[in-house]
Structures
1.
Amino acid sequence: MTALEQLRGRLAELADLASIEMLTSWDQLVMMPADGAEARAHQLGALARLTHERATAPEIGTWLDELDAGARAGERIDALEQDVVRLARRDWERARRVPEELAAELAQASAAGQESWRVAREHDDFAAFLPALTRNVELARAYGECVAEDGQSTYDALLADYDYGLSTAELRRLFGALAGALAPMVEDARAHSPRRSIHAPVAAQHAAVAGTLARLGVNARGWRVDVSAHPFTAWVGRGDSRLTTRYSDGEIESLLSSLHEYGHALYERQVDPALERTNLGGGTSMSIHESQSKLWENHVARHPAFAEVLAAELAAGGFAVAPTELHAALVGVEATPVRVSADPLTYPLHIVARFELELAMIEGELPTSELPGAWREAMRRLLGIEVPSDALGCLQDVHWGAGSFGYFPSYALGCLIAAQLWEALEAQLGPRDQALRNGEVGAIQEWLAEHVHRHGRRLDTIPLLERATGHALEIDPFLRYVGPLAGR
Amino acid sequence: MTALEQLRGRLAELADLASIEMLTSWDQLVMMPADGAEARAHQLGALARLTHERATAPEIGTWLDELDAGARAGERIDALEQDVVRLARRDWERARRVPEELAAELAQASAAGQESWRVAREHDDFAAFLPALTRNVELARAYGECVAEDGQSTYDALLADYDYGLSTAELRRLFGALAGALAPMVEDARAHSPRRSIHAPVAAQHAAVAGTLARLGVNARGWRVDVSAHPFTAWVGRGDSRLTTRYSDGEIESLLSSLHEYGHALYERQVDPALERTNLGGGTSMSIHESQSKLWENHVARHPAFAEVLAAELAAGGFAVAPTELHAALVGVEATPVRVSADPLTYPLHIVARFELELAMIEGELPTSELPGAWREAMRRLLGIEVPSDALGCLQDVHWGAGSFGYFPSYALGCLIAAQLWEALEAQLGPRDQALRNGEVGAIQEWLAEHVHRHGRRLDTIPLLERATGHALEIDPFLRYVGPLAGR
């Protein structure tokens, strides 16, 4: 076998292992009996260790060196294979830079930190979480220093795990401008588009979710739709997409979260089949992935025309509501302390706060012990609210407990990129109002496949975005999207 | 790390991989959308290749040699560790004897053979299956020759994959005696205990299965009960047992099959926790596993006293039936061509026929092209019936299409061993009639845990049986069990 064949064989194996890990995690959250937890931790641990060993094995370096030598000697490989080799080298070198002991410490601290966080949040006791947080910040810093490339700061290096090619400086600039524009709009939006509730029974929501997803192409041959404590998506194979949602009687979150998860699933389904079982066969970054979920959540589910579809599906499930009233409930604005239930306008401000705080912790400017105070200050400044407790403040998210630093920005970038893609899409296809009123999304799916999905990992976040929209990453499309909520 | 620690680490990894394979297969049959099949085949292939590579790796030989040297030098390891090392050497040497090309050919021929079998059965076209069957017999013979130990015949060697320590000569003797005793009983049993149907609605069966399993300790914390095309059991972890059953309106098969699968699951749950994630932590052989399912199917579900429990559970589900009538339906005898729906008396005769035929094919005495005729002759001789078609004859089971030779005997051995264990259990605990009438099975579970389950793989089939019952493998307990059906 040639070096390329051997490399592609290993990459196919790693893709299969990643799918198995996805399935195993999905099962844990959706199907597993509770008493299976201990064995499942062992199983996931074994998969992670095996994957790490196979992904960092020295023979990959040998194959890559042989391919380099071949290229220097004038051997030709096609453009797809060049991308396979380019990303294989990037991933392999990055993974090899982490000493085994550090990788083990990170995994151990992540598990312990999540447990510490769970208990601390339950008792609203930040002090109980502080040692784990401090340890996680130290380890993340050590990890960032290991993987940093020339000229990268530690936080730059952490970012690259989720969004290769983004820089801290660029995020500072973007998020600064975003906060500067959004924060003054919050008060106006509260008056202009006040939050209101709709009490649709769970059975009607269930029927509406099924009916709406069916219109988008979700069928039993290639999809599962289940319930879990927190909505998420698993892609177990090209024809095996699994999304979850959750239902509560007083909320209509299920309509938004199911379309959000659908966006993640559609991205993975529409990657070019030629990339399957290579290292290029998945979504390219966390921010592009989040842009796909946000596009379906913000620009389809929250579109006034699509409210007619959602209202019709709720009516078919036995719950009557006027489309205008439903739309108003889906976009109502209110500054509250909790990120996951935030409205479309205030949501990115929750992220800006987290970005500022985690950057300051990683850079050593904010001692971890001072996080609660800094959190309250940020919420006051950005959202104009007082945080009632740490449980509803700096303890609300699992990320820092799990040791994830550099992840939060993708949530806000997803909002920005979704708006930017949506404008480009409508500029090319024309306004979507009439099509969405009829529940027709075929042209949207095709546009996304062509401009975003099919590329898989062949293009990183920024080149992908520039090619799809003709513009660098910008905040104006998002501001135009949320402007009407504040009467702008 | 010592050689023993390294070995145990690898064995733990292999146990985790086996659990993941179990979960992945369970999902495929119970949860997976149909379009996920192609990706799933890749995933299972990757798991199988990785498992084979890790299980046959040369470093295992090095560790085993170091352990041997240590033992010669007087180093002591405890009895459990001795069994770990003993089985590790047996498994490793056996797996190493198969050349990689042959292993790949076997896997490929098994997949192709199953597909060929599926099509041939659908069209009742044995000729279409003949090339795949011939190939599978040749490959099984080649495989058996590779793994045969000193003095073993090829079929002995195949048997050892399912039941280590059994010999073809012993099976010939046992099955010959069994057929000689059973075949004359078939006609009497047809008259004495005729087959009769009970038409319980699916909803009532569903309620009865849930209610009965709950009495046996099945709860949502540690079990799943689902529906699949063919009932089976998956053990994903000590606290994660998953059984399936199936329902049809005109049959009460679900009551038998759910208790059958429960028996498999209970075996794995009650292995000594100290054996978990070692090479000893599962059931010891196919025949002992089948004895556990048959014990709950034949000796509990088909017990006249337990019919009162089943009838009460059906009544709770809205279907009234007299316990005596229900029991009569669960044990009714009729010689029919199909194994999977056979009654308890004729079932082992189906297996005797398959044993004779596959042994003759492996030994080259029966050309594969003559299988249909030989099948008809065997069914006439053993069951007194004419086979209406190959689809309901030699094409009814997937096993030979999948390349499994030496597997069938365990089905009949399971019946024999179950009866032998049940007699030993009642000899020690006293008759179970009153307890079963009350739905009390705690003492049965405990007896099985102590005498069968806890040992895991530490004892092979025959030593386990002799220790549990004080007797060698024999047919008389089974004949005493089915005798009353024929009025004996």
Note: The longest helix of chain B spans residues 3-30.
2.
Amino acid sequence: MCDVKDMTNKVTKIGLLGFGTVGREVFRILEEQKEYFARKMEYAIEVKSICVKDMSKDRGIAKKYFTTDYESIAKDPEIDIVIELMGDCPEALEAMQLALKNKNSVVTANKAIMARHAKELFELAYANGAEILFEASVAGAIPVLRSIREGLSANQIQSLYGIINGTANYILTKMTQEGADYEAVLKEAQEKGYAEADPTADVMGHDAAYKLSILAMLCHGKIVSVDDVFCRGIHYIKPVDIQMAEKFGYVIKLLGITKINGEHFEARVHPTMINKANPLAHVDGAYNAIEYKCNYAGDGMLYGLGAGGAPTAAAVVSDVIELVHSIRSENKINLQPSGFLSQSLVPAKPIDIQDLKSRYYIRFSVTDKPNVLSRMTTILGKNNISVQHLYQHGADEDQTIPLIIFTHDTLERDIRQALREIDKMDFITQTTKIIRIEE
Amino acid sequence: MCDVKDMTNKVTKIGLLGFGTVGREVFRILEEQKEYFARKMEYAIEVKSICVKDMSKDRGIAKKYFTTDYESIAKDPEIDIVIELMGDCPEALEAMQLALKNKNSVVTANKAIMARHAKELFELAYANGAEILFEASVAGAIPVLRSIREGLSANQIQSLYGIINGTANYILTKMTQEGADYEAVLKEAQEKGYAEADPTADVMGHDAAYKLSILAMLCHGKIVSVDDVFCRGIHYIKPVDIQMAEKFGYVIKLLGITKINGEHFEARVHPTMINKANPLAHVDGAYNAIEYKCNYAGDGMLYGLGAGGAPTAAAVVSDVIELVHSIRSENKINLQPSGFLSQSLVPAKPIDIQDLKSRYYIRFSVTDKPNVLSRMTTILGKNNISVQHLYQHGADEDQTIPLIIFTHDTLERDIRQALREIDKMDFITQTTKIIRIEE
């Protein structure tokens, strides 16, 4: 079996592509823990080369490690494992493909590339007797991919709810705890380094959609295009929404949700009202959590830090340790990297969001005109929307009155039709906003 | 490499030892999920034989499966994986040893045997090119062993707090929610089947101590004798303790705790007051949870069902699936079953509980005599115990007055010395009780 790598060599050599926050921490962990890791493996781990963009920067590490040539690392026959931390760019995909073709195993934290190219990378790895692991791509330090793929592998995962973007959760938590505006909290988060200068990917849910697509693959063996994941951000959430959630026993979280029931398959990311009694409601700040429901294991939750240099690097290095065992025991492929056989990994389209049946929170912005309520509720009734709570909030600074409705179970198609009609009315001052409710 | 098992055979054969609640569910999952598992593995899983005590019982399953002879199953060369669910008895250990000696891999849910014999079983497995997995032995459906061994393997786990006994947690939760007496709740739990007729192992912490010993092995690579795990049950907790906890912002949970800091190593099981803000404080009823703190991944928690037929069976079958991959890929040993090399798994003694430094809740039971407080506090002061809160609760039915003290950080040795002196006083009506506090 041992036709490629020299197994007499007691050192596992690493090529590191990218040396940002995570890359530096990976290097540090491998240096700091040599003695500890010797208790876990017979084989030492050694970084051989590091690919960076700018060779001139002083990184306090011997120059001999660095190169700007990722191809030479990916192809290096002395290297056993290529760690890809280049971010979402074509070179990252190219480097992984090149490494696998050269029978070098890959560890990556790249959610965007795994969400788009997982299956082809798995097949490339398999064809070349190499392996690919990507625990760090979802929820940082939380061992969620491994738990779904291995620890829960006897189960069908019926539903999964994830707080999988720390920036969005930090902002919503601050808004909840301090009653502050979205804009003010975002600005503060940017100043403190919790949000990036361009926060779009985090606050608009795109980052969470990538992660959800990966989670759906591991949960259900379905390849979901990120473009098919319904995705809404948190930018429209106002303090009044948070107060109304609180008043009726809910908390607002940006959730990635996937559910399966026979042919019915959901994959969506949006701000969601969840019951205060739900453990996810207590997951605050930059923490991530994944709540799941299985056919045998029942429900459970995994909770921890979803981002940050050291936590993400710890996930990367844990993958490396697994690969060291695997490479050194001459094992070809142990578990399928998705938990499913490649031929069982099939493309699937989630239901159209219009076909979602859910409870809804609706925030109308109205001015005080005659018969507002009766005109509105007539349209709601005509569209099969039945109201559970109706609450009129005090007027805000521009004399707009937020009128709040919690519906019973409703088809989103009906909600949208009703809102199209209502939003044309003369008493509506701003586009009506909705928040989906999960019990 | 393939000198033992016939790899051309596309079926993995299982021998099942024990057919109680968990065994029956294992059989059911393997039957029900044939189609689903075919998406995960190229190899079918088939139960070949089941060992039971009583052959005459009608189990609604063909007689051909059953035998009373566990040895024949353990030694059967046609069998690939022996699932041991016999409970804590000498035959269970014997069967596992026999299976491993015959190069049959083992999956077990046996916490008592794993706590006592893990290292010798690991070495036996290794020597025979077989494997042993035991995810179901701790916290049922929660993939905690795998998470520590693999997902967090780059980390040193500095502390771990576990709610790892569902019965004790159910009782404490009911006492907290309903203000009920221990005895009344225990009786109700027994009637509902949440507690066994003899609840000793659960309520006295012995079950949790076995699990903690296994967790400590996976966290630190230390073999801890269960006899060295300090262990106290929940039987002495009274409603007044729960009220006092509540009043000062705490919740009482039976925790398994292990901590490590250089040479300082703790492993203990006892009722503990934890802050209401701690995620563990919200883990109610029959749920289990494990909270950990790592040097790189930071802190996290795994939460789910800790017992029950289907959840435990799901953990067993997940181990089976991992072994199917491993056996069929001709891999000898992939990960060390503890995450540590056998020679690094060293016996270790936790600190004497007397050397514990902690905050303490102390419940004195006193009668109204002159100078009670001054006599008591003089002894406390003499023993270096400084009081943070002192609270006198109303007299209970037998005119005993609970006098409650929360201490600052104190050595348990000093607490014990002080209580020995105070409990001799004429104003003390019952032995003083303590609850350790973790922040």
Note: Chain A touches chain B through 63 residues (CB under 8 Å).
